[in-house]
Amino acid sequence: MKKLLLHIAIVACLFFVFDRLLGFGLGFLYSQSNATDEYKISYSNETTRDPILFFGSSRCLHHYVPAIFEKELGKGCFNTADWGIKNIYYHYGLLSNILTRYTPQTIIFEIHPCDWLKTPYSDVERANSLAPYCGMSDGCDEMLRQSGNYWKYQLSWVYRYSGSFPSLLTGKFGSMDRSLKGWKPMDGVMDTTGIKAEEYPFVEDSVKITLLERFINDCQQHHIRLIMVESPMYVCSQQDVFEFPRKLAQKHHIPFLDHYRDSDFVGHAELFYDFGHLNREGAKRFSEKLSKELRKIRPAI
Questions:
Q1: Alpha-carbon torsion (288, 289, 292, 293), positive or negative
Q2: What would the DSSP string read from start to end of 17-67?
Q3: CB 49: neighbour CB atoms within 10 A?
Q4: Under 8 Å between Cβ of 110 and 230
Q5: Are 240 and 260 in contact (CB under 8 A)?
Q6: CB count, 10 Å around CB of 193?
Q7: CB 173: neighbour CB atoms within 10 A?
Q8: Tens place of pLDDT for every residue, the chain, 301 residues?
Q9: Which of 57, 116, 258, 300 has the fewest Cβ atoms within 10 angstroms?
């Protein structure tokens, strides 16, 4: 019996050492990757100290060009947004991690219905993208606990990177251009055949709304200027999709710049890659317009 217990203890120790060593190596590969997810998440959590940060999902990833905002506002910018229907669970964990390193001056948050509605494929599992940063902040760990994977990530450092293995092997050849500071341009013009407005027939999610409130409160407690934005769509819903964030912004006395129905973009297929994402030219035009709008906000950004 004693020999069996000794063997079990030895195997457990070897597993622990091997897991930590391999996990450390995977973490290094993760931070060096130019694949979209790995680069955006690692740089946002570990490196950026720019005074202006952009938060959001794919529409933010493709629509906000840091170089244009830097030229207009005279301050460094980084686009932390990532694709994959990232929502408030991810955003809150990311903000918590960033605040362990430094305090940005301004956060521009491209809010999306998945941040306050029970939309498909966008629940707490989106927080799992922050698995490599388990233990970095209380807020991140809270989101990982809600996802049900926190203790798995604590037990195994290798498991934290299980969703990234293919990208870690080919990461140096990823498609992210680091000089663009987080912006990922979309090249091409949309096919308008059969395009219909995206509708949101979903109920409000009280947990997401609570996290949105906490996100806002954390920004205000750290004296971060928070601005919520909605960028244009090619074709718009007839419903008042953004009534909720408009009222939320009013409640907390923060700006909400709603360009959802912006006539400079809506219906202009030449500016869109698909019905919900601006192409390279559209993103540049939107960034130029929004950066000038931000410059007029008082107190100044």
A1: negative
A2: HHHHHHHHHHHHHHHH--SHHHHHHHHHHHT---SEEEE-SHHHHHH--HH
A3: 12
A4: yes
A5: no
A6: 5
A7: 10
A8: 677 666 667 777 888 899 999 999 999 999 999 999 999 999 999 999 999 999 999 999 999 999 999 999 999 999 999 999 999 999 999 999 999 999 999 999 999 999 999 999 999 999 999 999 999 999 999 999 999 999 999 999 999 999 898 888 877 778 899 999 999 999 999 999 989 999 999 999 999 999 999 999 999 999 999 999 999 999 999 889 999 999 999 999 999 999 999 999 999 999 999 999 999 999 999 999 999 999 998 787 8
A9: 300
In the sheet that holds 52-55, the strands lie side by side as 77-79, 52-55, 106-110, 225-230, 256-258
Q: Which of 114, 262, 263, 267 is nearest to 197 (CA)?
A: 267
Asked if residues 16 and 70 have their Cβ atoms less than 8 Å apart, the reply is no
H helices of the chain, in order, are: 2-32, 36-46, 58-63, 66-73, 88-98, 138-147, 150-155, 165-170, 206-221, 243-252, 280-296
**pTM metric for this prediction:** 0.95
**CA end-to-end distance (rounded Å), the chain:** 69
3-state secondary structure of 16: helix
Cα-based angle 52, 145, 151 (whole degrees, multiple of 5): 120
Q: How many residues does the chain have?
A: 301
Pairing assessment for the beta strands 106-110 and 52-55 based on DSSP bridges: parallel
Please say whether the beta carbons of 257 and 228 come within 8 A. yes
**Residue 109, C-beta contacts closer than 8 angstroms, at least 6 positions apart:** 54, 55, 56, 91, 215, 226, 227, 228, 229
